[in-house]
Design a protein that fits this description.
By secondary structure, the protein is mostly helical. The protein is built from 3 helices and no strands. Helix 1 (4-26) packs antiparallel against helix 2 (30-55) and helix 2 runs antiparallel to helix 3 (58-83). The longest helix has 26 residues, at 30-55.
Length: 87
């Protein structure tokens, strides 16, 4: 059984992810959507860390670190493309 603290923390992360998805789908401009995707990636990493802490598994935290690194590199590539650097 999962501890209620982790349950409520995961619920807050899911609400934040829902709000980030709204920004991705209804963002008025492309940079707003990129920020929404980056926020969603950050919340996914937070969810993985919560999952790893709740079930006492270090592998979830390791995967979260790799996902955060790939997310960061992807966000930089998208920002560079939007700026006009990747042609």
């Amino acid at each position: 059984m999962i501890d209620p603290v982790f349950f409520y923390a995961a619920l807050i992360v899911m609400i934040g992810a829902f709000l980030a998805l709204l920004r991705v789908f209804f963002g008025p401009s492309v940079p707003d959507r990129v920020v929404g995707v980056d926020t969603l990636n950050t919340l996914i990493v937070a969810g993985m860390v919560l999952l790893g802490a709740a079930y006492d598994r270090a592998i979830y935290i390791d995967i979260a670190i790799v996902y955060a690194l790939l997310s960061y590199v992807g966000t930089l590539a998208i920002a560079k493309y939007l700026q006009g650097g990747l042609k």
